[in-house]
């Protein structure tokens, strides 16, 4: 197995909760609460979870948009040296941010409406002193072509484009610096279903072409199934299950994953009512005051009092099968339903 | 795929991009997708009829302000004590008194009449007297832009000593028209200079407040609230009364402007802060930082253009307030003092009811204020509506 490109160790991100006139800190929201994660070069790792579980915060800490509270984010650069992104000083970070790039979720707010495509996509090249003048224009034009936009759009402004086209611009901006790791933060969730597939295919093609590694953040399990090699499931700031995509979808080892999978729409009408639909209680517990024991026990249908809600007895992510890890106290007792592979 | 040491080159030159649209192409014919923000704003602004009218009037007023010395028949200090409260004369183009058509500009002279009952001295137009008026006549010396000395005036009596009061005379026998034109320079420039000062203060403090946030924001916002809570007229009065009386007119002018700016910056600071706060969390600002832009570049290149048009609009909207403030201060006698003339100083003459009854034309500077303020407000409104051409 090749050495991982990114190793996240015991990462914590806490946001202070402030109240009152003087902004007194009354508590902390544990957005990311002790995450361990490994990304191997060339793979696409999916990060899934419901809204508010901290998956975007995790992605943003890796890109150092947010400075993590504690923990390590070890990035192995092209020369093979490990750098800790969590503590890298600004001058080093600037260089690292060339190699780790982000594709944002919202194609409308992530492009500056006052700049042309040439300016937007060329900005990283310009700032890093890679290219200027006509060379910069040539490179931007070439990149636009790679993502499927005509170079004649160079001097247009973003408002002239559709959501899918804007997302292509976003991808072009992320890739123009020849990064190694791309954090795609829900890159397709703001797009029409018809455009989604095009963008996913584009991402896949570009991965093959440039040897990219993706951290693919999404809440859409069908999208994740189609693009990811491995999937990490996140709940309330923690990883609850990490496994290869096929393995996770057919044999989930965590009740939360099972519930998520049961909500995936089945395209085949004959299968529509075959699976059990598991409904979770609507309320995600307050991340500033997580429940004791297993944080999922408040919504888990397999939770057993005295086992799952013991303070201090939180489950850790443990190996259950080869390459399959889950954080559930009862994982070996349960027989959880996954999704049957689509009959061909 | 895992060969990371030699990533595929990303910049294989594709077909060369098409050249940018030729500069000779008319702006309107370019596709909308390539139009710059400025042209989009201008297109939107042009559709606003009232704003266009306001722009023309404002432009005209500023032209008058710049070329005041040339446009005014007399200098602001020229007066003739024999003609106090002289009524307005009509400017004639043709003289038919001789029976035939005698072309040429002229006005009639005055005849003084003593009222039998009140023994008050009033003036009447004497149609038998004819004072020739010419264009580009020699008159009082002045300096264009304060630099080039000249003595030609657009209009004036051929003999500079003849009385000509197209809009009437003041209590001291000054020509009201000339004084109003000279007052335009002062009144309109005080708006600009004051707003410029307020702009610097407001943008700096508001920008720091919004971009830095936290405790700094808290402190600056409390300061703004303090300034907003002080009633402005008493504060102006207090500050203006504190000015040393022996200051020259220029010093006084700048002191008054500063006083006005000290109060006017708060609105602008709020606007700028709000914009910074809302933009700070926009993803395109985050991505600009990730793209390696320096903090300076993020602020000036990525954030500022997004609200520069809003800034221009709110600056335009604050000029009328400045003009009104100066007018009210001067009207109350605490603003600018003679020999400097502004519309407010001129309106001082219209303070008592008897002067207004005998010489109602003394209210004309008030009309100037109204026209200028309305025009600027229309322009500001139009700019505000056009400021964001991307929103429909």
Automatic annotation (TrEMBL), chain A:
<protein>
    <submittedName>
        <fullName>ABC transporter ATP-binding protein</fullName>
    </submittedName>
</protein>
<dbReference type="InterPro" id="IPR017871">
    <property type="entry name" value="ABC_transporter-like_CS"/>
</dbReference>
<dbReference type="InterPro" id="IPR003439">
    <property type="entry name" value="ABC_transporter-like_ATP-bd"/>
</dbReference>
<feature type="domain" description="ABC transporter">
    <location>
        <begin position="8"/>
        <end position="261"/>
    </location>
</feature>
<dbReference type="GO" id="GO:0055085">
    <property type="term" value="P:transmembrane transport"/>
</dbReference>
<dbReference type="InterPro" id="IPR027417">
    <property type="entry name" value="P-loop_NTPase"/>
</dbReference>
<keyword id="KW-0067">ATP-binding</keyword>
<keyword id="KW-0547">Nucleotide-binding</keyword>
<comment type="similarity">
    <text>Belongs to the ABC transporter superfamily.</text>
</comment>
<dbReference type="InterPro" id="IPR003593">
    <property type="entry name" value="AAA+_ATPase"/>
</dbReference>
<dbReference type="GO" id="GO:0015833">
    <property type="term" value="P:peptide transport"/>
</dbReference>
<dbReference type="InterPro" id="IPR013563">
    <property type="entry name" value="Oligopep_ABC_C"/>
</dbReference>
<dbReference type="GO" id="GO:0005524">
    <property type="term" value="F:ATP binding"/>
</dbReference>
<keyword id="KW-0813">Transport</keyword>
<dbReference type="Pfam" id="PF08352">
    <property type="entry name" value="oligo_HPY"/>
</dbReference>
<dbReference type="Pfam" id="PF00005">
    <property type="entry name" value="ABC_tran"/>
</dbReference>
<dbReference type="InterPro" id="IPR050319">
    <property type="entry name" value="ABC_transp_ATP-bind"/>
</dbReference>
<dbReference type="GO" id="GO:0016887">
    <property type="term" value="F:ATP hydrolysis activity"/>
</dbReference>
Automatic annotation (TrEMBL), chain B:
<dbReference type="InterPro" id="IPR025966">
    <property type="entry name" value="OppC_N"/>
</dbReference>
<dbReference type="InterPro" id="IPR035906">
    <property type="entry name" value="MetI-like_sf"/>
</dbReference>
<feature type="transmembrane region" description="Helical">
    <location>
        <begin position="223"/>
        <end position="241"/>
    </location>
</feature>
<feature type="region of interest" description="Disordered">
    <location>
        <begin position="1"/>
        <end position="33"/>
    </location>
</feature>
<dbReference type="Pfam" id="PF00528">
    <property type="entry name" value="BPD_transp_1"/>
</dbReference>
<feature type="transmembrane region" description="Helical">
    <location>
        <begin position="359"/>
        <end position="379"/>
    </location>
</feature>
<protein>
    <submittedName>
        <fullName>ABC transporter permease</fullName>
    </submittedName>
</protein>
<keyword id="KW-0813">Transport</keyword>
<keyword id="KW-1133">Transmembrane helix</keyword>
<dbReference type="GO" id="GO:0005886">
    <property type="term" value="C:plasma membrane"/>
</dbReference>
<keyword id="KW-0472">Membrane</keyword>
<keyword id="KW-0812">Transmembrane</keyword>
<feature type="transmembrane region" description="Helical">
    <location>
        <begin position="186"/>
        <end position="211"/>
    </location>
</feature>
<dbReference type="GO" id="GO:0055085">
    <property type="term" value="P:transmembrane transport"/>
</dbReference>
<dbReference type="Pfam" id="PF12911">
    <property type="entry name" value="OppC_N"/>
</dbReference>
<feature type="transmembrane region" description="Helical">
    <location>
        <begin position="303"/>
        <end position="323"/>
    </location>
</feature>
<dbReference type="InterPro" id="IPR000515">
    <property type="entry name" value="MetI-like"/>
</dbReference>
<feature type="transmembrane region" description="Helical">
    <location>
        <begin position="50"/>
        <end position="72"/>
    </location>
</feature>
<feature type="domain" description="ABC transmembrane type-1">
    <location>
        <begin position="184"/>
        <end position="380"/>
    </location>
</feature>
<comment type="similarity">
    <text>Belongs to the binding-protein-dependent transport system permease family.</text>
</comment>
<feature type="transmembrane region" description="Helical">
    <location>
        <begin position="253"/>
        <end position="272"/>
    </location>
</feature>
<feature type="compositionally biased region" description="Pro residues">
    <location>
        <begin position="10"/>
        <end position="22"/>
    </location>
</feature>
């Amino acid at each position: 197995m090749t050495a991982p490109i990114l190793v996240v160790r015991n990462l914590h991100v806490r946001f202070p909760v402030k109240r009152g006139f003087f902004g007194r800190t009354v508590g902390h929201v544990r957005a990311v609460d002790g995450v361990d994660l490994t990304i191997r070069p060339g793979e696409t790792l999916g990060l899934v979870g419901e809204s508010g579980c901290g998956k975007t915060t995790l992605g943003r800490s890796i890109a150092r948009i947010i400075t993590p509270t504690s923990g390590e984010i070890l990035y192995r650069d092209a020369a093979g040296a490990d750098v800790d992104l969590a503590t890298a000083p600004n001058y080093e970070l600037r260089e690292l941010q060339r190699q780790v790039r982000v594709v944002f979720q919202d194609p409308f707010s992530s492009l500056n409406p006052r700049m042309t495509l040439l300016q937007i996509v060329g900005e990283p090249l310009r700032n890093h002193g890679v290219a200027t003048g006509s060379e910069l224009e040539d490179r931007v034009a070439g990149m636009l072509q790679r993502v499927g936009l005509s170079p004649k759009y160079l001097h247009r402004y973003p408002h002239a484009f559709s959501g899918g086209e804007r997302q292509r611009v976003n991808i072009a901006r992320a890739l123009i610096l020849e990064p190694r790791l791309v954090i795609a933060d829900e890159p397709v969730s703001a797009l029409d279903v018809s455009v989604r597939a095009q963008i996913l295919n584009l991402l896949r093609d570009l991965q093959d072409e440039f040897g990219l590694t993706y951290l693919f953040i999404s809440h859409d399990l069908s999208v994740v199934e189609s693009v990811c090699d491995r999937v990490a499931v996140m709940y309330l700031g923690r990883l609850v299950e990490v496994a290869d995509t096929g393995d996770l979808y057919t044999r989930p080892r965590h009740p939360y994953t099972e519930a998520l999978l049961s909500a995936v729409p089945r395209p085949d009408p004959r299968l529509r009512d075959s699976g059990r639909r598991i409904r979770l209680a609507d309320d995600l517990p307050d991340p500033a005051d997580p429940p004791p024991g297993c944080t999922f026990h408040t919504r888990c249908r397999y939770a057993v009092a005295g086992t799952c809600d013991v303070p201090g007895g939180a489950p850790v992510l443990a190996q259950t099968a080869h390459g399959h890890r889950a954080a559930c106290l009862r994982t070996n007792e349960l027989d959880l339903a996954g999704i049957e592979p689509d009959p061909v | 795929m895992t060969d990371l040491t030699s990533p595929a080159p990303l910049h294989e030159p594709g077909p060369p991009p098409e050249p940018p649209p030729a500069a000779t192409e008319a702006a309107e014919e370019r596709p909308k997708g390539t139009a710059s923000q400025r042209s989009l704003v201008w297109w939107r602004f042009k559709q606003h009829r009232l704003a266009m009218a306001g722009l023309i009037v404002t432009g005209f007023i500023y032209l008058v302000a710049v070329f005041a010395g040339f446009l005014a028949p007399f200098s602001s200090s020229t007066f003739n004590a024999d003609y106090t409260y002289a009524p307005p004369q009509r400017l004639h183009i043709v003289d038919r008194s001789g029976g035939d058509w005698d072309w040429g500009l002229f006005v009639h002279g005055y005849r003084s009449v003593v009222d039998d009952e009140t023994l008050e001295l009033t003036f009447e137009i004497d149609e038998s007297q004819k004072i020739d008026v010419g264009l580009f006549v020699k008159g009082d010396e002045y300096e264009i832009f304060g630099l080039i000395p000249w003595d030609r005036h657009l209009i004036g009596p051929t003999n500079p000593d003849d009385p000509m009061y197209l809009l009437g005379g003041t209590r001291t026998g000054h020509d009201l028209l000339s004084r109003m034109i000279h007052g335009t320079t002062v009144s309109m420039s005080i708006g600009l200079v004051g707003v410029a000062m307020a702009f610097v203060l407001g943008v700096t403090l508001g920008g720091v407040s919004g971009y830095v946030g936290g405790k700094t924001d808290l402190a600056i916002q409390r300061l703004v609230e303090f300034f907003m809570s002080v009633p402005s007229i008493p504060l102006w009065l207090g500050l203006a009364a504190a000015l040393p009386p022996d200051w020259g007119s220029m010093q006084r002018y700048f002191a008054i402007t500063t006083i006005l700016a000290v109060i006017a910056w708060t609105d602008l600071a709020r606007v700028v802060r709000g914009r910074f706060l809302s933009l700070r969390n926009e993803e395109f600002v985050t991505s600009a930082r990730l793209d390696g832009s320096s903090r300076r570049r993020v602020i000036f290149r990525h954030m500022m253009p997004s609200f520069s048009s809003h800034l221009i609009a709110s600056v335009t909207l604050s000029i009328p307030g400045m003009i009104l403030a100066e007018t009210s201060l001067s009207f109350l006698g605490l603003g600018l003092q003679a020999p400097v003339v502004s519309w407010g100083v001129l309106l001082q003459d219209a303070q008592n009811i008897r002067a207004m009854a005998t010489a109602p034309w003394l209210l004309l500077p008030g009309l100037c204020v109204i026209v200028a303020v309305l025009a600027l407000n229309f322009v500001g409104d139009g700019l505000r509506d056009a400021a964001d051409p991307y929103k429909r």
